[in-house]
Design brief:
Elements: H1 5-12, H2 36-53, H3 62-74, H4 78-97, H5 106-127, H6 129-134, E1 135-138, E2 143-145, E3 170-171, H7 173-187, H8 190-206, H9 212-227, H10 231-256, H11 261-277, H12 285-297, H13 309-317, H14 329-338, H15 343-364, H16 369-392, H17 396-399, H18 403-410, H19 415-434, H20 436-439, H21 445-452, H22 460-476, H23 483-497, H24 503-524, H25 560-576, E4 590-595, E5 604-609, H26 610-617, E6 625-626, H27 627-634, H28 639-650, E7 659-662, E8 681-684, E9 694-696, H29 706-735, E10 737-739, H30 740-750, H31 757-769, E11 773-775, E12 782-785
Parallel strand pairs: 5-9
Antiparallel strand pairs: 1-2, 1-3, 4-5, 6-8, 7-8, 10-12, 11-12
Helix pairs in contact: 2-3, 2-4, 2-5, 4-5, 4-7, 5-7, 5-9, 8-9, 10-12, 11-12, 11-14, 14-15, 15-16, 15-18, 16-19, 19-22, 22-24, 22-29, 29-30, 29-31
């Protein structure tokens, strides 16, 4: 409502002075009743006891109680009240909590009573909070006032500091109450009995014979020790020695009960998991796990037990049949060793030893050509299994490096053995290149060969020589399964060894492509209108430097129609490419011959070499012929070659014997000889039958003999000498003068093929004789370069 302006003016003009308020002290200061402290403190102390231990009694108002504590502290009754409260704690322990020494169901009884006492302490801590904030008890038993800024939180927590300093030299109500409970336990000597019961139950839990309630009691007992500051004494003085002895006993039991590596690892792993994830509820995890690792598991991790080959090797081989969800024993062992200092290194060394032992055992019997191919396959399988194993181990690739192992396996100490490995690898690759079924299961087989065996091989030049010969046979005899696979493998070799290593192989591919284009242009030219008959000839033009050296048969007597085709192409080629000289390699020719053993019989298509075809043509007349007659008719001067041709046509595998051989001294009792005599006769096998209409008859010459393999190795060894000479000259030209002790290591480092210091010394003498270098007249250990 609006105020009256007249009334406001009247009040403003009255001029009355404001009244002053004066506060006067009491004439007589107020005083507390004579029995105020006794009555109030007794009400507080007995009331807090009744709330926990006598619920049926009249309950105390907590809000009023808190205010009464504030009043008592403000009237300087704090020290007196603090002392009476300590006595009340002692009374609670003696009368209500632990009135007697109860031994039956000890852990359960102690935990029940301790929980009641803790509830009582919490109640007192809240009710007597003003007292706890202003007063404290020293370790000497003196009640003092807290310093400004110091409060009860400085001493909060469960652990009791028995050697306090400075701000920690006093104890709050919580610590004082727990100390009284601990003193009561020691009075009845229950602390030792509690530990014994707790230790017995812990051993029961080790075997899985402890229920959930008992496990909870173990956990609560550990927390009680921690609150009472007893854990710091029990852990190093009693628990750790008992655990060490217990774990050592279990380790000895496993050794004496019949040792099984798989069972020991499974037992240690399961117990580690149990201790790490179950015992950690009632034991410090770092302590119990470390003790288990050092005393239960570590005693087995040595060459006499787990790492012994008879025990460790089966663990590695389990990876072959292991499932994807169940961890294997080797994976469990890896996890356990990862917890130990240097544990990964120990297992990695054992895996390397296993790989080296298995690998060297495979390489011992690799000398046989058939066994060599199988051993290479087994070595690759071993590498695949170990690679799978290492990839299944956490951080396995970081700790398990088998590079040095495979280098020792693939390169035996003797150079001859290294050459055999290189040859076997080349033959293994050749088998895969000629068989599409072997390429289908694993599309990365070529990369595995390069990264698994070839990259560690020192005799790469030996591999190159044999692989190049096999590649030439596949290309010229049309045994290529996939040209893309061939080119991909050569590209992998190029990426590993450089362009110079594969230059001749790439030249072979270029010759094949160029020959195909040349034949296409020849057929499109006017020269293709030459001799017309049913003969279709395909010619491959090869560069001499790219291909291996083959035998020459210049005196072969060719059929006239084949001669005409040959002369017609030669005329076209000379016209197109002047200045080039062509040499016909009849050894590499192959022919498709139509064969009908009987007039009304089925017709077969025989895929044979040119020399085999010339021999078969001689039997068109149906007459029998002997070896000398065939040599004259064919024009083949090499008797051994013709003998092998007749053996392949008459004594090959079933379904390829188009000729029939009759020994000159044949009888019913004698078996047919495998060799060919001059008087032995050959004729068409009129009873020839085969389920196939297209038959490939492999010439025995295509299979390399021991002499041919040795000749190939000798050629490579000769090339190595030239390589050493080149390296020596390059070093001497750059250094001009050098000591013998410095020259030898530099040469061995730059030469990429296997070489010994003795080989280098021989080449040094050769270069000195040829005056490329000389010994210093003043120092016989120094060499000088001669420009």
């Amino acid at each position: 409502m609006p105020r009256s302006k007249a009334l406001m003016k009247k009040r403003a003009g009255s001029g009355a002075a404001p009244k002053k308020i004066v506060i006067k002290p009491f004439s007589k200061p107020p005083a507390l009743p004579a029995n105020y402290y006794e009555k109030t403190s007794r009400e507080l102390l007995d009331g807090t006891l009744n709330i926990i231990f006598n619920p049926s009694a009249q309950q105390l108002s907590l809000q009023n109680s808190y205010q009464q504590v504030v009043n008592l502290v403000s009237h300087k009754f704090g020290p007196r009240l603090y002392g009476d409260l300590i006595k009340t704690f002692q009374k609670a322990c003696e009368v209500y909590v632990l009135p007697r020494a109860e031994t039956s169901q000890l852990l359960s009884y102690i935990q029940t009573q301790y929980q009641r006492y803790v509830d009582y302490l919490l109640l007192c801590k809240h009710v007597f909070l003003p007292l706890d904030r202003t007063h404290a008890l020293t370790v000497e038993g003196e009640i003092v006032k807290r310093a400004a800024g110091e409060n009860a939180s400085n001493n909060g927590g469960g652990l009791l500091n028995h050697h306090p300093t400075n701000a920690s030299a006093t104890m709050g109500l919580w610590q004082v109450g727990l100390e009284r409970f601990r003193m009561r336990l020691q009075q009845f000597q229950l602390d030792d009995q509690i530990y014994q019961r707790w230790w017995e139950d812990l051993q029961l839990d080790w075997d899985g014979n402890l229920g959930l309630e008992q496990q909870t009691l173990l956990q609560r007992t550990l927390y009680m020790w921690q609150d009472l500051a007893m854990l710091a004494e029990i852990l190093p003085n009693r628990l750790e020695p008992d655990l060490i002895q217990f774990f050592q006993l279990k380790a000895e039991e496993m050794k004496s009960d019949g040792y099984s590596a798989t069972a020991v690892i499974a037992y240690c792993h399961s117990k580690w998991m149990h201790v790490a994830y179950s015992w950690s509820r009632f034991l410090p995890k770092s302590t119990c796990v470390t003790l288990l690792e050092n005393n239960l598991f570590r005693p087995h991790l040595n060459d006499e037990w787990l790492l012994k080959p008879s025990n460790f090797d089966p663990l590695v081989e389990e990876i072959k049949s292991a499932g994807t969800n169940t961890p294997t024993a080797i994976q469990q062992l890896w996890m356990l060793c990862g917890r130990l200092p240097g544990g990964y290194k120990v297992i990695a060394g054992a895996v390397a030893r296993y790989a080296k032992t298995r690998g060297l055992a495979m390489m011992k019997s690799i000398g046989d050509s058939k066994a060599g191919k199988q051993k290479i396959a087994e070595l690759l399988q071993l590498q695949s299994e170990l690679s799978t194993l290492i990839s299944s181990l956490p951080h396995g690739a970081e700790h398990c490096s088998l590079k040095h192992v495979w280098e020792d396996v693939v390169n035996p100490p003797l150079d001859s053995d290294t050459n055999v490995v290189a040859e076997a690898l080349a033959k293994y690759v050749d088998i895969h290149m000629k068989d599409a079924k072997k390429q289908q299961p694993d599309s990365n087989w070529a990369s595995k060969i390069i990264s698994g065996v070839f990259c560690y091989l020192q005799a790469k030049d030996i591999f190159e020589a044999f692989y190049k010969k096999d590649l030439a046979k596949r290309l010229l005899w049309n045994r290529i399964v996939s040209m893309d696979v061939e080119r991909n493998f050569v590209s992998l070799l190029k990426a590993e060894c450089g362009a110079g290593y594969t230059s001749k192989m790439e030249g072979m591919f270029q010759d094949m492509d160029w020959s195909r284009e040349t034949m296409t242009r020849y057929k499109q030219s006017n020269y293709s209108d030459g001799p017309t008959d049913q003969l279709d000839m395909d010619i491959q033009v090869l560069t001499t430097g790219y291909w291996p050296v083959y035998p020459q048969y210049p005196n072969l007597i060719l059929p006239q129609n084949l001669k005409d085709k040959q002369e017609h192409f030669l005329e076209y080629y000379r016209t197109k490419y002047q200045g080039r000289r062509m040499t016909w390699q009849y050894f590499l020719g192959h022919v498709s011959v139509q064969f009908r053993p009987k007039d009304n019989g089925p017709k077969y298509s025989l895929l044979v070499s040119l020399c085999q075809a010339l021999v078969l043509v001689q039997f068109n007349s149906g007459n029998e012929m002997k070896l000398p007659q065939l040599m004259a008719a064919v024009g083949l001067e090499d008797r051994q070659e013709l003998e092998r041709i007749l053996q392949s046509l008459s004594m090959g595998k079933e379904g390829t014997r188009v000729l029939q051989k009759r020994d000159h001294d044949a009888s019913e009792k004698k078996k047919r000889r495998m060799s060919v005599h001059d008087d032995d006769t050959f004729r068409i096998n009129n009873g020839f039958k085969s389920n196939q209409r297209r038959i490939r008859i492999t010439n025995i010459l295509m299979k390399e003999t021991k002499e041919e393999r040795e000749k190939t190795v000798e050629g490579v060894s000769r090339d190595r000498l030239y390589l050493i000479d080149a390296v020596l000259v390059r070093i001497m030209k750059a250094r001009k003068t050098i000591l013998h002790q410095q020259l030898i290591p530099q040469v061995l480092e730059q030469v990429k093929v296997p070489a010994q210091p003795t080989d280098v010394k021989k080449r040094i003498e050769s270069l000195i004789e040829r005056e490329y270098m000389e010994r210093d007249p003043k120092d016989r250990n120094r060499y000088n370069y001669l420009a």
